[in-house]
Amino acid sequence: MSVVAMLRVWLSERVGPADDRLFTTRTGRILSRDALERRVAIYVVRAVHGCPSLCEKKITFHVLRHTAAMRLLHAGVDIAVIALWLGHEQVETTQIYLHADLALKEKALARTTPLNTSPGRYRPPDALLAFLEAL
Known about the structure:
Mean pLDDT: 83
Structural class: mainly alpha
Helix content: 55-70%
Low-confidence stretches: none
Number of helices: 7
Strand content: under 5%
Number of strands: 0
Radius of gyration: 22 Å
Largest sheet: none
């Protein structure tokens, strides 16, 4: 069952006002950032058994948020919507994702390529590389 399907079932079965928080502590209070980090760490340890390469990766709540934001950006979601989704008070805070995404930069640059040029990245001549390596 997908996460979306599971959340729909859970939302239909839960008791309380529709605007209640989805994820809370045992006592019903808001989850703190530390609590979220602890939960992510617990599930990363569990996930390592099925995917040992996770040991080599830095997986934190922040990394998961960043990854989600970048995937939304790549899917064409407007930066203002991503800002709202992340809970940023200002859209400017979310602009860092635009600056961090080289694929989007390359796509924008590709649109500015003069018509009579061949596509691709610049490849410096060997003489230039040798000069730079000698520095």
